[in-house]
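User: structure tokens for this one?
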Amino acid sequence: MTAEDARAELRQQIFEALYEVAGSLLESQDIGPDTEFPETGMSSIEFLAFIEKIETKLDVFIDLEENQDLTTVNKFCDLLLEEAATA
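Assistant:
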């Protein structure tokens, strides 16, 4: 699997978690990998549920105090791929 394949698979998993948590809110919007979550109308409760879903689904821990700029799917991909490379 190439690095781009791994990134695409991870991006898909993040989108799946996002839609599991806030699907009804997002269905009428065109959400791309660089869409800022605050622009979608996602509440802070939905965002925290999304973080929990990713942590469970991917068996990772996301420190929101250290990573306050996690506002898009691509930023999540960057963080998780960076952490995987250093693990």
